[in-house]
From TrEMBL:
<protein>
    <recommendedName>
        <fullName>GOLD domain-containing protein</fullName>
    </recommendedName>
</protein>
<dbReference type="GO" id="GO:0005737">
    <property type="term" value="C:cytoplasm"/>
</dbReference>
<dbReference type="InterPro" id="IPR036598">
    <property type="entry name" value="GOLD_dom_sf"/>
</dbReference>
<dbReference type="InterPro" id="IPR016024">
    <property type="entry name" value="ARM-type_fold"/>
</dbReference>
<dbReference type="InterPro" id="IPR009038">
    <property type="entry name" value="GOLD_dom"/>
</dbReference>
<dbReference type="InterPro" id="IPR051064">
    <property type="entry name" value="SEC14/CRAL-TRIO_domain"/>
</dbReference>
<feature type="domain" description="GOLD">
    <location>
        <begin position="360"/>
        <end position="471"/>
    </location>
</feature>
Amino acid sequence: MSENPIFDTFNHALKSKTITEAIGHLREAEALLDSSLGSIDLKVIACLKKIVLHFDFQIVRFAAKLYNKICSLAPRNDPHLLLDLSNDIFLLCENLKGTEIAEELEAGVKEILVHLIQHGGLEKEQLEIVQQLLDKKTAVNYEEALKPVIQDIQDKNIFAINRLMDMFSSIPTLKEQFLCYGTQLEPVLDALALNANEEMLKKFSRLLENFIFRVHYNVKLGGFEDGSSYNHIYKCSDTRLLYIHDDIFYTSLKFVQMLQSFDKGQNLTLGVLIRRLWENYPKHRPSMYDLLIEHFKKSSSSVDETIKGNSAKFLYVILHSTDVDGEFKGRLETEVEIENLFKHDKYDEKSIEGVFEAEESVDIDHIQAHIGFPLSVQIPSGEKVQRVIEVQEPNSILVWGFATEYYDISYSLSRVDLPQPQIIIEEEKVSCDQAPCLGVRLLHSPGLYRFIWNNEYSWFRSKHLRFKVSLIKPTTITKNNVQDHKEIQQLITITHPDKMGDLCYSTPSIEVLEIGVHISQNQILMLSHNIREESLFSEDTDLHSLISQFIEKVTKNSPELYPIKKIGIVEKSAKKREGLDTLGAVAVARDVDAVALFSEQSLHSHTLISVVNDDGLRSCVVHKGRILLSEDGECLGDVSRLNIQDPIAAISTLLSVFGPAVVVISGKNFIEHLAALIEKVRPLVPAHIWQKSVIRESVYASSVAVEAASKLHYLHYRYKFAL
């Protein structure tokens, strides 16, 4: 033992056999830092670096929190320590380039480096290192790169926009692209003001759509025609890029004003761009008043009914907004040239219902996210590149596209912050030199996801890759024309909520005690922290007392560690049981539904069928992370509704209707050996379905129901937009 408890705790984390144990020690270290117990020295910095190298992406999000704290607490009179700390953080950020984690860490390091320069005390070599770290040269010399663009504009060459797009793609991060757009394009704007024509400006509107981008989407999830699809409002996670510099707004405003000067009321895109500016920059709205007056005048006289209708709706929104200046409203109301918009049938209260650009739903597979321009990278032969994406919200949607200038490339997608990386897309070689490779994926779990583009198989050819990766996340916004989740669709019901709610699952530092309870016909099984207890059960059993005693047993050595208790109860038919609210938050569900969702999160199958044979046969089907339901809320794939009680007939029917799929069987009444069951089912299923299907037991065998019960609150958190 050393005299520094922070180092000792880090050392315990380094020696941990599991990631869970290591994270526990890191939380202890975080508490020590908060309480100023122990000191930050070179041994602490070196040990944290070893932890990050040892556990890699599994530990990154926890290590980042510690590095941020250490940056603020590290002694400012030790240049050697500060340089080591800065270098370690920059190395970590290199693997996380483009994520908010990296941006936050880099901001903390820059403060340290500025301090070192301002307060002196550095040796010559140290000063050179600090200046190199601080003075990162931009990847592009903007002045030189813009010269041919400006020349093309002066020559009235409409392909000037292509040069400009290529320049943006050569910038290594989206953040730098937006900074360049906001702060470096004044010479381009000046050249356009003198030389632009209508055709050239139409080309430049393509540029604007990537920097004045769409924020909200009304996403249709699911996809079956039987009513199983549902809608939810999503929001682009990159909206922070709009606000990193005020000049981003003013550059956009100048471009839009220039477009409008050539508009004759026929440019549908222009109206969308103006509305986006209004919605995205509320504090800058007064700067848009003159622009809006002119826009409404031209729209009012337009022969295009879509343009006129959109402007009428926009006008209604402005005049019925409480945060718009009364004088400006008066100007609009007295402007003779826009009277037609007031008389338009789209000028009504429906205009303020819902969310802009989320009025119409878009199928998840057809989402297009245009934020900035594709990033560019050269991949030498025999090498590969990666891109890490931090997903903070469950049920976020990942949207991507990439292309090579010549030849094919291999790529894969996986979640990497787990003890074993979870493969989302197996590595595959694709030809994308003629048309880009596009993809969309609903991600049920928060975490770190990694794309790898692999050129290791090529001996001679390097690959020039351009790629875009965007994330849109679910919001809590509801609107009248979006189907709200019906009560009958709440397959996991929180019967006794607590004040913490789902927050504990998005905040790793909060300790939660999860207790699983599986009630069968005459038995109850409880599980928590690998402690299991089984006893007889009847409706006369005092369930409160039984669970309370079990919790005392589990927490007898450290009751104060678990102020938050989450109890999940699963049984054949879910029911609310009274008198449990004093124990903690309580959730209930059918055992077959809980097992299905619990299994889906580890197997990641496109379609999963859960079959439970315990006090009767029952089943459910999970498709794309959602249990399939009929219009009346009944499970579509439940064989108990069809009075099928023969497992062989049930499984073959389910596969024939919903397959290909992974079938997970559980329950004590499966008396046949799995291999024998498979052989009997095989001839009853169409060959093309059988070839792509799997029948298996859960890895938790007979205890899968109680395991699922212990994670019931987490499953509710993870699937709350899909249930």
